[in-house]
Amino acid sequence: MSHDFYGETLDRISSITDNLRDLQAKDDFTPADQTRFDRLVNEREGLARRLENYRRANGLSDPQLAHQTAAMAADFGSSGGHITITNQPRVYKNLGEQLLDIMAMTTDAPGAARARERHQQVVNAASGGNTTSGVDGGYLVETDKSADIMTSAIETGVLASRCTRHPISANADSFAYLAADDRNRSDGKVNGISVYRKAEADEMANSGKAKLKERELRVEDMYALVYVTNRMLRDAASMAEYIKRNVRQQLAFKLDREIWQGSGAGECLGVTNSPIVVSVAKESNQTAATIVAENVVKMLGRFRGDLARACWFINQDALPQLPLLKVADQPVYSLDFRKYPLGTLFGMPVVPIEFCSTVGQKHDILLGDFSQYLLIQKGGIEEAESMHVKFITDEMAFRFIARNNGQPIHDAPITPLNGSNTLSPFVTLDARTE
To answer: Which of 65, 182, 362, 385 is 20 to 30 A from 73 via CA?
Structure first.
C-alpha cells in the first residue's frame, strides 16, 4: 500500500463515517437504511484492517495507544493546567511547523513522506505527543502545544478561569462523583446524619445513614475553526501565533457562554439554566430597568458560597447605576483602581460580562461563586485541516477539537434549618421590565 493509497483510504473511511452519522440521525430509519448502514460498517472495518496491516508491515506504532498516552499527559487538574513532558524529542519548533506537516500528510502534498517521518518521531516517543486519531484523519497537536492552547483559552475566559477543573483519563469518557445530598437541612440533619449527646451508660441513638447523590458528566466535543491564507502558510512562526490567538479566543468565548447559559444537551449546563440558581424578586413599584440597593442587599442575603471568590457579574450597561446605590446614606459601591478597576459591591468585585441580559431583564446581575461549578477536560486538542472549505479564497481551514463539559457541582439550592428562603452560590435578580 503506497502513501497515496494510505491517504485515499483515510479519506474513504472519513466519508463512510459521515454517511453513517447521517443515516443514524434519520427519523424515518427504514429496513433499506439498515442494510446500507451494515454494508458501510463492514466496508469501514475492512479498510481499517488494511490500514492496521500497513502500519504493522512498516513498523509503525498503534495510533490509538499514542492517542491515549497523549491524553493522559495532558493534566489540567491540580497542577493549574501545566504539564511535565519528559524524553519527548523536539521535532517541531512551533505549532506552525507542525500544522504544515499535518497539511502535507492529509493532502499528500510534496514533502508528505518526510512529514510522516517527522511526525512518527513524536508518535513513537516514550511520553507520546501527537498522532492520527484513528480512522477519521485527525491529528493530536503535540502535548505541550495542546496544553498551552487549552490552558490559555481557559485562563482567558472570565468564567472558565474561576471554575473547579478536573482532568479525565484516557480510558474514560465521563466523570462520576458523589455529592453530599444535604441541600435540605430543615429537619436538623446534615447529609442525613444527626449528632447527639448522651449521659454515662446511656444507649446511643441511631444517627442515621449518610446520603450521597451520584452525579455524572460526560465529555462532549467543542471545536474551533480557523482560516489561514496560503501566503501565511509560508511563515510557520507567524501562522502559529495567529492560530493560537484565534483558537484561544474562540474556545474561551464558547466555553464561557455555555457555563453561563448552556442547555446541558450536548454542551455544558449553564448556571442560569440550572435548578441551583435562586432568584430575588424586584421591589414593589420599582422602576423598570433599574437596580436599587434593596435588590443587592436581598441577593446577598440569599447567597451561600465562598465570599472570597464571589463576584457580581453584570451587564456593562448597569455599571453607571452601581455608584448611586446607598444603604442608610452609606455607599455600598467603592472604587479600587489598583486591585478592582471597576469597583466592588459590598467588598466583592464587579465584573461586567456580555452574557448578562440587558438592564431590567432577568440575569442582568448575578452574584456567583464559580468555584462551585465543575469543568471536566479530556486529553489534548485534536486537529484536522481542509483545503476545500475556502478553496475559492485561497485559504486553508484548520479545525481544533477539545473534549470537555461542565455543570454546577450541586443540583439544588440549600434549604436551611431555620428560615423560609433557599440559599445558593448563584443568586440572580428577577426581571424589572414594568
So the answer is: 385
Cell digits for 83? Answer: 504539564
Consecutive H or E run containing 48: helix 31-57
230-233: long-range contacts, CB 8 A cutoff, minimum separation 24: 230/394, 230/395, 230/396, 233/100, 233/103, 233/396
Rounded to a whole number, what is the distance in angstroms from the first to the last CA of the chain? 72
Question: Which pTM was predicted?
Answer: 0.68
DSSP 13: H
Rounded to 5°, angle at Cα 292 from 291 and 294: 130
Cβ-contact 377, 402 below 8 angstroms? yes
The DSSP result for 257-269, as a single string, is HHHHH-BSSSS-B
Q: Which of 114, 100, 104 is nearest to 243 (CA)?
A: 100
pLDDT on residue 236 = 80
CA distance 119 to 55: 14
pLDDT per 10-residue tile (average), the chain, 434 residues:
60 80 79 87 84 63 42 39 44 78 74 76 44 42 67 86 86 75 66 64 60 79 85 78 84 95 95 97 95 96 95 96 93 87 94 96 97 89 71 77 92 87 96 92
Phi, psi of 331 (to 5 degrees): -65, 140
